[in-house]
């Protein structure tokens, strides 16, 4: 499988990133303190091989309450492992742990799982046609040398059809500072080898997260081998007041619904895994956050989702990084999402585009309203793309687009063995989708070791 060095938010999200070309902030991380944090070795990862996200532990009596909905009925209050964060790292951890007959809890504050591997659905106000936008990660690829577990899983996804190659015209173009606009004639396609390694979720990015949960057995009582499955998934739910209860040696979490005003539910877990952005870990754990996590920085990224009435045939590409976006201009990445496999065909339907703003511009507009940002980015789009035939537009703000200074350590996660706590995410391993996945595998292995 070919190699690609771009990141998740393809710029932000092209493998996970707001393109590396738009980065203008740097920071350094501290060394892991051996007295507090234990590392996760590659050997322990291999010992926990299987679907990403699996965590291990002792088998307990089953209550058969596995569910993908948000119902609280009859859900157990004690779990072997609680995973906070339903992005790729958290899903990788849950998936691997699901093979060990454990009682598992996955808490995700968003409407769905997958984190930045997500899709926004809308309807055209004029025609009613379905509109599909991958507003986070634009595509991903595999770096086999440092992402062995991810490489194996991607092969399974390809076989299942939930991942397909994006055979679009993808590359780079320049921002003309004199003209104040994108220079469309400067587009340069990526080399064929790189283009061949570009993949997307099908029929959408968000389909991949649902697939991972399905493979983990969510909604089932037992797997094909007759082993019990007990996974509770809480979406649109925020974990709060997370504390380690010393007498019982368990973690206590308050689960607050983001859709109702009902009283928060308290649950306990023998092991706590936090697979979120570094900023979210700081919020969740407050004063007990390791210095290594406190030092991780993540930029804001604004995205514009826009649909035009008819295809922009005069645009010579399907996806492009703006090569000098860090120095000037509003846009860092532009993509014709309708060109991705499995998306609604154009025909008479509107054509969908996703634009990611540069890091500098996003930072300057970090306090701006969604409407103001939408108007500003839409003005750039209509000017640069030569069209006024817009039938839909929406701005979306990513508060933690990607880690500017990931740890990139071989451990791929941080572990506090005394408190039965494991922390991870892309920030612990890199800034790409595969890095987040590898961190999830390491988190699962660590959780198993702590039980």
From TrEMBL:
It comes from the Eukaryota. InterPro entries: FAD/NAD-bd_sf (IPR036188). Pfam families: NAD_binding_8 (PF13450). PANTHER family: EXPRESSED PROTEIN, FAD/NAD(P)-BINDING OXIDOREDUCTASE FAMILY PROTEIN. This is Amine oxidase. It comes from Prorocentrum cordatum.
């Amino acid at each position: 499988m070919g190699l690609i060095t771009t990141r998740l938010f393809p710029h932000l999200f092209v493998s996970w990133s707001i393109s590396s070309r738009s980065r203008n902030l740097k920071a350094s991380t501290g060394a892991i303190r051996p007295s507090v944090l234990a590392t996760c070795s590659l050997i322990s990862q291999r010992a926990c091989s299987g679907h990403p996200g699996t965590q291990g532990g002792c088998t307990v009596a089953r209550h058969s309450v596995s569910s993908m909905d948000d119902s609280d009925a009859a859900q157990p209050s004690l779990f072997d492992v609680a995973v906070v964060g339903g992005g790729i790292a958290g899903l990788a951890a849950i998936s691997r742990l699901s093979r060990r007959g454990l009682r598992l809890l996955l808490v995700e504050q968003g409407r769905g799982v997958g984190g930045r591997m997500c899709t926004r659905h809308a309807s055209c106000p004029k025609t009613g046609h379905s509109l599909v936008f991958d507003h986070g990660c634009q595509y991903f690829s595999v770096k086999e040398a440092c992402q062995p577990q991810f490489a194996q899983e991607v092969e399974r996804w390809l076989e299942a059809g939930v991942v397909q190659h994006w055979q679009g015209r993808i590359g780079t173009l320049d921002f003309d500072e004199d003209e104040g606009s994108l220079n469309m004639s400067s587009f340069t396609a990526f080399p064929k080898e790189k283009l061949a390694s570009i993949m997307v979720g099908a029929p959408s990015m968000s389909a991949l997260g649902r697939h991972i949960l399905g493979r983990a057995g969510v909604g089932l009582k037992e797997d094909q081998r007759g082993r019990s499955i007990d996974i509770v998934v809480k979406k649109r739910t925020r974990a709060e007041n997370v504390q380690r209860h010393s007498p019982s040696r368990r973690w206590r979490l308050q689960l607050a619904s983001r859709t109702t005003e009902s009283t928060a539910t308290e649950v306990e877990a023998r092991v706590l895994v936090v697979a979120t952005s570094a900023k979210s870990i700081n919020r969740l754990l407050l004063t007990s956050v390791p210095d290594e996590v406190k030092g991780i920085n993540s930029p804001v990224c604004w995205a514009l989702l826009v649909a035009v009435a008819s295809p922009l045939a005069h645009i010579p590409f399907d996806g492009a990084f703006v090569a000098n976006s860090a120095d000037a201009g509003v846009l860092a990445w532009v993509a014709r999402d309708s060109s991705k496999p499995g998306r609604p065909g154009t025909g008479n339907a509107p054509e969908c585009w996703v634009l990611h703003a540069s890091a500098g511009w996003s930072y300057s507009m970090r306090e701006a309203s969604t409407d103001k940002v939408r108007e500003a980015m839409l003005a750039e789009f209509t000017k640069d793309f030569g069209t006024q035939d817009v039938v839909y537009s929406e701005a979306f703000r990513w508060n933690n687009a990607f880690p500017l200074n990931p740890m990139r350590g071989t451990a791929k996660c941080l572990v506090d063995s005394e408190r039965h706590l494991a922390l991870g995410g892309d920030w612990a391993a890199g800034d790409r989708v595969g890095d987040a996945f590898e961190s999830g595998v390491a988190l699962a292995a660590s959780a198993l070791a702590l039980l």
